[in-house]
Amino acid sequence: MTRVPGDLYIKYDSGDDGSDVIPQGAAFWASPSIWLTDTGGNSLPHAITGVDNWVHVQVDSMSTDPRSSVKVQTWVCDYTPGYIGPDSARPSSGGANGRTATVATAVTKSAPGTVHVTWRPTTADLINGPNADTGHLCVGANVYVETLPTPEGARLSGGKLDVINNRHHGWKNITVIRNAGRRTPFAFRLANPGAEPDDFVVRAWELDRETAMGRVEQEHLLMTAFVDLVDGEPEPPPVPAACQQEPRERTWLAQGGRLVLRGLPEATPLRPAEHPAHVELRTVNGRDQSVGLTIRPGELVPVVFVMGCEGEPGEVHAFDIVQQTRDDLVLGGARLIVVDVPEWHCC
Q: Are 313 and 323 in contact (CB under 8 A)?
């Protein structure tokens, strides 16, 4: 497919400048430009049912010319059909029309803009998890400008997001797991987005040490209750959700310091794991790091990710799990961050 033209874009990773297509195999579902907070502006690693959660989307531009009236649609989606967008949107996030907000300032290459919408998840959103108390969903976003003289992008009321070919689209899906030197399972379900039975491959692998402690990964670690930042500047006060331009953790980390496990007798730094973990996917067809599946339309096939490690407290592992077609087309994925903690440690 041909890339959709335009200057506006949503970053797929922290180094993205919008000037090129997203490379094959990139984790386009882990955008640093989409994040969650509570109403007070405190970052959330997970959404909370029954209360307002704020979804923030930052819009960048490749042009020095200011663009006004920039709008963003957001949806919270069930990824199991094999895609995200209006056609997989949850009712709690506005259904197929999603929720739309306008960037309050002009957007330029040197001045990104951010929109903020509220989302109140319900217990019906606790899906795709290993138990009834957790859920795994994806946030999708679409940027567009309707006003003359230079409209860009388009408002959506149906269909799917095409993050690879349309830089107006963004996707965020990331989960943090605590691990204490034992085998840790993570359960999810896969589906077939087509109209006929088809063959798919689900793969899992551990990412390199640099990625395990990348900029976005550090931000998400700092959002959790068991991680603190020391030897740097004091924690910045929360910015009201409606005024945020970037996650508070991004501001705090930019001032220096190091991440440590909270609540230990001695400061224990977070760092990339010294030794790789054992990674395995378990399905009805077997267990391995790469498993083939035949999935019928409408079927939800359970998959369990299991990792095992014997690391030291504070060691961090990062993993990607990806579903692909038999032609190697990536349908979607998830990034997991695992932190080794002592057996007795709690949040």
A: no
What is the assigned CATH class of domain 176-347? mainly beta
pLDDT above 60 (res 161): yes
- Transcribe 191-207 into DSSP letters: ---SSS-EEEEEEEEEP
**pLDDT for 81:** 85
Q: What dotted CATH number matches 1-172?
A: 2.60.40.10
So what's the pLDDT on residue 179?
46
Contact 90, 76 (CB under 8 A): yes
For 142-169, letters b (16+ CB in 10 Å) and e give bbbbeeeeeebbeebeeebbebbebbbb
Chain centroid to CA 129: how far? 16
In angstroms, the CA 128 to CA 132 distance is: 9
Return d(Cα 141, Cα 10) in angstroms, integer: 8
For CATH 2.60.40.10, the residue range(s) in the chain are: 1-172
Q: What's residue 184's pLDDT? A: 59
What confidence category does residue 48 fall into, taking pLDDT thresholds of 50, 70 and 90? confident
pTM confidence score: 0.82
